[in-house]
């Protein structure tokens, strides 16, 4: 039996110890609310390494807190998803 393709899917990796859980949960909810119809694979949040806050779409890094030394600004991730999913 073939497994159904669950792409595209968003993955949010965050530092639990750093207290980034609330941010990850909020972004996951916002993304699902706006893009749920375009994300058959859904949104997954997973604890990661110290200070990490990364957002991936099917293995492609959309945002990395460590690379830009900040959290995403309002709608930054969502705007990238619009370009990719609806563009």
Please describe the topology of this protein:
Elements: E1 10-14, H1 21-35, E2 43-47, E3 53-57, E4 60-64, H2 65-68, H3 76-86
Parallel strand pairs: 1-2
Antiparallel strand pairs: 1-3, 3-4
Overview features:
87 residues, alpha+beta, Glutaredoxin
Describe the structure.
This protein has helices at 21-35, 65-68, 76-86; strands at 10-14, 43-47, 53-57, 60-64. The chain is of the alpha+beta class. It has a single domain (10-86), classed as 3-Layer(aba) Sandwich (Glutaredoxin), CATH 3.40.30.10. The model has no long low-confidence stretch (mean pLDDT 93).
Provide the spatial order of strands within the biggest beta sheet. Answer: 2-1-3-4
The ordered H/E elements are EHEEEHH
> What is the architecture at the second tier of CATH?
3-Layer(aba) Sandwich
How many separate helices? 3
CATH class: Alpha Beta
Shape: globular
Low-pLDDT segments, ≥5 res: none
Helix content: 25-40%
Number of strands: 4
CATH topology: Glutaredoxin
Radius of gyration: 13 Å
Q: Sheet with the most strands?
A: 4 strands, mixed
User: Pairing-aware structural class of the strands and helices?
Assistant: alpha+beta
Strand content: 15-25%
CATH superfamily: Glutaredoxin
**pLDDT averaged residue by residue:** 93
Calculate the terminal CA-CA distance, rounded to whole Å: 33 Å
**What count of structural domains?**
1
